[in-house]
Design goal:
about 375 residues, alpha+beta, 2 domains, six-stranded antiparallel β-sheet, 10 helices, about 20% helix, disordered C terminus, Heterokaryon incompatibility domain-containing protein
């Protein structure tokens, strides 16, 4: 199917209205393939198209006087994917290929299967800095755009949009930029601890307490149970104690342990949970809770009595938790938390040196710095 290429920098529509929708499997090897062996610095140089992007560290910062609305409307045509694939010497093109070449389980089923889509780049703002109270909106704060990244997308949308971001090590201020993953197979617990510390010490009173009255959230009237990850049993957690909350998918027709009034006494004995067959997600979160130096873990299947009526709302639990672990990528409670156990994840991070002092990385997340 042939399409008319939009004029670079115009505000023309990028989406074809006549698309052939069909099942999208692995992208055709005819235009996406692995580069054989590493590319040496002598062999790595920007192609003419990518040279015109005029990339430098300052490009990823919002400069005084920049009109972000106008900048966001402009896009750069990078070429057909088959053309990009033939420019293996170009470090920026290699990042684009890495965005396009995703395994089938990471694709959106509704995407179009196109033999050779056109690829584009467009600047988008990603980092905002709190500049203080907004005089025009009482109680609100004003946020100024500070950083931007390059959005990479195709027309028709054959692959999931991705981002090319500046590596934090090359940035004057690293807070908003991409972080190098130092341990591909295990998550960085020290980084998690630093984030938690930053939240608790720099966000101020506005983040410390819920704005909703506890009674409206359905706070427990008497007992709040949780897992003691040190003694591995169900306990009545002390009032106002710190705890980690877990939000996860139970899954369809998945059998797991539930606390009831009949087995509560048994599960309350120290070491009781070590004898039970717990779902992998709960076991991993217990381990993560220990790694973070926390003692109590709340999970609905074990902290609530499932043969008793209403006890309290989940909203109250998540609002008061020191942090909430969201395990939403698995299909059931046995999916686990990738990175908690050895060999539980395989992480490959693409970082390319565009020129000395300018290294870029690929991210499919809206905020790639939160990868652990």
């Amino acid at each position: 199917m042939s399409t008319t290429r939009p004029v670079e920098g115009s505000n023309a529509s990028l989406i074809n209205l006549t698309k052939r929708i069909r099942h999208l499997g692995r992208l055709p090897a005819s235009w996406v393939k692995a580069i054989d062996g590493p590319t040496t610095p002598e062999e790595s140089y920007l192609c003419e198209t990518c040279q015109r992007l005029d990339l430098k560290v300052e490009s990823f910062y919002v400069q005084l006087g920049d009109n972000e609305y106008e900048i966001a409307k402009k896009f750069r045509y990078l070429g057909r994917l088959s053309q990009i694939q033939r420019k293996a010497h170009c470090p920026f093109c290699r990042l684009v290929l890495d965005i396009a070449d995703r395994p089938p389980d990471q694709r959106t089923p509704s995407l179009v299967a196109d033999e050779d889509p056109a690829c584009y780049a467009r600047w988008v703002v990603d980092g905002l800095e709190d500049s203080g109270p907004d005089p025009d909106r009482p109680g609100e704060h004003h946020f100024k755009p500070r950083t931007r990244r390059l959005l990479i997308y195709s027309d028709p949308q054959t692959f999931k949009d991705g981002y090319i971001v500046l590596l934090a090590e090359d940035a004057p201020r690293p807070e908003w930029f991409g972080r190098r993953i130092t341990s591909p197979d295990l998550l960085d617990t020290q980084q998690l601890r630093r984030w938690i510390h930053d939240c608790e010490t720099t966000h101020g009173a506005e983040c410390e307490e819920s704005l909703v009255h506890p009674d409206l959230l359905g706070a427990p009237k008497d007992v709040f149970r949780a897992i003691d990850v040190n003694t591995m049993n169900i306990v009545e957690a002390p009032r106002n104690s710190r705890y980690v909350a877990l939000s996860y998918l139970w899954g369809k027709n998945f059998n797991q342990l539930f606390t009831t009034s009949k087995n509560l006494a048994t599960l309350s004995k120290p070491g009781a949970l070590e004898k039970e067959k717990l779902p992998r997600t709960i076991k991993d979160t217990i381990q993560l809770t220990r790694m973070l130096g926390e003692r109590y873990l709340w999970t609905d299947s074990l902290a609530l009595l499932h043969d008793v009526g209403f006890q309290y709302h989940d909203d109250w639990v998540y609002a008061r938790a020191a942090l909430t672990v969201v395990a939403g990528s698995g299909k059931d409670a046995n999916a686990g938390l990738p990175g908690v156990r050895k060999e539980s994840r395989k992480f490959h991070q693409e970082i390319e040196e565009i020129r000395p002092g300018l290294r870029l990385m690929m991210s499919h997340l809206a905020e790639g710095k939160f990868s652990l």
